[in-house]
Amino acid sequence: MAAMKRFLICLIAVIFTAWPVMALDIAGTWFTSDGKAKVAVSDCGDGTPCGHLVWFDPSMGAETTDINNPDPDLQSRPLIGSPVFWGFKRKKDKWSSGHIYDAESGKTYKSKLRLTDEGRLVVKGCIGPICQKQVWRPALVD
Fold this sequence. Notes:
The protein is α+β, with helices and mostly antiparallel strands.
C-alpha cells in the first residue's frame, strides 16, 4: 500500500512538473497563412501560449500603430510587439478558450490552436460556433 502511494505521488509530481513544458510545443516564430506577418509564440508565464507580432510585410502599406484598436489609449501603441493571442487552456492535444486579436479590424475573437503532425500551427478565430481557420508555418529565426 505504501509503495502504491509513493508511486501515485511521484506520478502526480511528474505530470505537474511536465505541464509547463507542454505549452512549449507551439513555441517559436510562425508565418501567418498569407506570409505577411510573423508571430512569436512563447509561454505567458503561466504555462499557456501567448503570441506577439514581431514582423509584418511593409509593402502592405499597413499602419505601424494599432490605430484600429477600439481602446483609444492603445491606438498609438506600436504594432510590433503587440499581443496577437492569449488566454488559452490546454485541452488534450490543442489549446482552446483563448482570444486572438486582428489589428486590421481592431476586433478580438475567441480562438483555438493546434499543432499538426506536419509541424504547422492551426489557428482558428471564432464567433460563436463559426470559426475561420488559418494554417501557419514555422519561420526561420534570423
